[in-house]
Design goal:
Residues 1-20 form the signal peptide. By secondary structure, the chain is mainly alpha-helical. The protein has 9 helices and 5 strands; from the N terminus they run αααααββααββααβ. Helix 2 packs antiparallel against helix 4 (52-63), helix 4 packs across helix 5 and helix 5 runs antiparallel to helix 6.
């Protein structure tokens, strides 16, 4: 009798032919450049009509998981790409929808096959990525919503990771639909409220913002938080 996990994977359209290979993130870059605009808009309709490219990439996570010998950047890139790719998978498996919140328990569903287990998006975000002392991950992982950071239309790779994380952080802060930054007043994304602890590991929130903002923010600037749109990022 086959392992129940194996049967579940077959239902997802995966095969085990990728056994032994390393993750090829370039395949995800090719996929993203076909289906994600420069503004981060995702063409879920087209992906749903032909999800073979996505499944080929996701298939790799079944047999390849981070090793102790990996660098921090290799591990971060692995988990960021996993989060983004499996979020797309979750959306197309339930498409058409108007919001990820139309799906029952979207972040707690255990459907991500890694290292012989089925993981959830919440596990990747809270139990893995948030414990790696890299607050910029919040601008790299994208939960398929309009107020989320823009989905980068290339995969995160270890060799470019620091530059990529800086780019998406600056881009998010400069987007006036998500953050409005002035010297003495801030209207910020609720991401900075929900995950405030992560941005204060090495100082205050304003200290963090001043590293990446084009505007020099006063230490006593007043902070408000903007409404968050969960409308699908399509």
């Amino acid at each position: 009798m086959k392992n129940p996990l194996y049967l579940i994977l077959l239902l997802f359209g995966f095969s085990l032919s990728a056994f032994g290979q390393t993750i090829n993130h370039s395949a995800f870059t090719e996929f993203l450049q076909k289906h994600v605009s420069n503004k981060g808009e995702v063409d879920y309709k087209t992906i749903k009509a032909n999800d073979s490219e996505l499944n080929t990439y996701l298939n790799q996570f079944i047999t390849v998981s981070p090793k102790e010998s990996w660098t921090k950047n290799e591990t971060l890139a692995y988990w960021i790409n996993a989060y983004n790719a499996f979020t797309i998978k979750l959306i197309i498996d339930n498409y058409p929808i108007e919001s990820i919140k139309d799906i029952k328990n979207p972040w707690d569903q255990e459907f991500i096959p890694i290292n012989g287990k089925l993981l959830s998006l919440n596990y990747i975000e809270h139990d893995v990525l948030r414990n790696m002392n890299e607050p910029r991950i919040h601008f790299a992982i994208v939960c398929a919503s309009a107020s989320c950071p823009q989905l980068l239309n290339e995969a995160y790779i270890p060799e470019k990771l620091d530059k990529q994380l800086t780019t998406v952080t600056k881009q998010f802060l400069a987007d006036s639909s998500k953050n409005r930054i002035q010297k003495n007043s801030l209207e910020l994304s609720k991401i900075f409220k929900w995950f405030s602890k992560d941005f204060k590991e090495n100082g205050s929130l304003i200290n963090f913002l001043n590293i990446y903002s084009d505007v020099k923010i006063a230490s006593d600037a007043k902070i408000k938080y903007l409404d968050y749109s969960w409308k699908l990022n399509d």
